[in-house]
Protein 1
Amino acid sequence: MVGAHGGWCQGPEIYNTVEGGWNAVSCQYDGPRDGRVEECADTRARKAADVTAGDARARRRGQGELEAQVLAALHEAAVPVSAAWVQERLGGDLAYTTVMTILSRLLAKQAVTRQRVGRSFLWSAAADEAALAALRMRRVLDRETDREAVLASFVTTLSPDDERLLRLLLAQATEEPED
């Protein structure tokens, strides 16, 4: 590619053969002796593209946001679907490998199931959002050594309505016959 300075410019790593002050490291023109610094059009375009890409990457997803989006896509599917189908539903420029990583993490958390079909897998949601939240709560509780203290602390932070609902649910659970 010919840069605006008339020499060959393919980035800072390519030595520019134009004489008269072109810096091979930064693709800048220092000027013969006037101290003026000027970047070639290729370098300016590359930097502009980096800024634009940086703006797109600047918004980071919240923790678990991508997993929630993948689960939502799986919930809307009537049958088990491929990772490519999930990728298409999520839109944007999300890479296939990213979708596969999220699906694998969800599989490890038992939030999704997969079945082999030929050389690939079909994926489906194993539980709804409420069941997944309950699973996360259970895992946090399982990691603690003093379960009673954790549960007591949790119960004391509940609103009166939530406490009432919890009491109702516990009463219903004790009434149900055990298998």
Protein 2
Amino acid sequence: MAMGETAFEERIESVSEVLPSGDAERLGDLYTRDAELLPPDGDFVAGVPSVVSYWQDVAEAGVASVDIEARDVERDDELAMRTGEAWMKDTAGEVLDHVKFVEVWRPEDGTWRIHRDVWNGMGEE
């Protein structure tokens, strides 16, 4: 079942707001049931409960906002990929981390969700 471009765009636009929110329900809804995070210098983070816990820990560590700049988005009816850069900031707007990322999205239960999420630091600026 094809889902419209607008629905997909709304989902990818919500990531910046949802990731630093610490809201378990919204975080869980963003990812597939068998989602995996591949954070830098760490193990795989697999499944919604672990993914939610990871992002809640990030929010508790002081990340208050995430600014995302997409470089490329490719999509068909079954899979989508987004690459880009993100800046994780504290409440004062100071950059805590600047990363490059790849997200793989797929539809699940009629909604686009992140299936794989990998990022690495951009180094010194």
Protein 3
Amino acid sequence: MNYPATITLGLAATIVLWVLWFFSRKHDQTIWGWAPFSLWGSWMGIETITDIARAVSYYLSKDGDLSSLAQMASTIILAVLLLALACFARWHFHDWVFGLSALWALLGIAVRLMDTSKVTAVLIIVLETLAAALMYLPWRKLTGRLNSVDTVSAQTGNAVEVTDDAAADDTDQDDGDESTH
């Protein structure tokens, strides 16, 4: 495989797609306006990162086989990197599609590794589960402490601005009247 050309083309395509994502997100905030670019850009970004990891493994193994510990460590590092990027995209850009792409790609890697390294596969699945919980659980509803901080700050006039999807979720909370549901 020609890794330099593959990586260069992958990076170029990823950059173009993320620029399109940026402009579509800026001008059309509906899901149909930005999500296709996010999905395609996510897949290209993940593919490029895994190609870089494969190229590093390939060039390191030219001197001899990589130990199983080194292969496991590099796979875990790749998983942590992809999940960190997914969490960053979710919380900084409010892009939940990138996280789904990363979780799906890593699940495929984990399933493939089940035959060769069950420890690595299970560790990736555990990391995915933690990252998915971090990205997709409605933390404002699950922790009363965050809601009480919002209440106290609103009473003192120092309201905390909420800019993510949790703001919409907070307005859906009922005032203790269970008969509405």
Protein 4
Amino acid sequence: MSAPPLPRLRAVDLNLLTVLDVMILERNVTRAAERLGMTQPAVSSALARLRLLLDDDLFVRCGKEVAPTPRALSLAGPIRKALHLIHASLAQPDAFDYTASHTFNKLGIGDLGEAVLLPRFLRWLDLSSAGGLVQEEARDPGFSGIFAQAI
């Protein structure tokens, strides 16, 4: 027995996978539609598209419910994991990790900032283990000194 043909990934709509996931849990088109916030005909249409895409019935009628086919059951775990990973990735944006940053930053500050703020800022960078290079340039064009410190 040969493996079923693989669909082109570009042809797979993520919304179809969410429908399949909820249908496997609910085993009822009406309940799945309610849970998804869709109409029953929209869920039926999504199932029809999935059947064509995967070349499998996916569900067979068993009284008032439907039962997943072996192909649908084999897809259930991997699809659930993939949807969870996508959801988790989109739900919480990554916070900027300044300790892993290796950027170059220029600060344009005046004399007071250079005397008061810059030493504190550089100490904070040093203590926080932030990577990168900070360069401060005087705004006065007559001043030729450039302060640079590698952290």
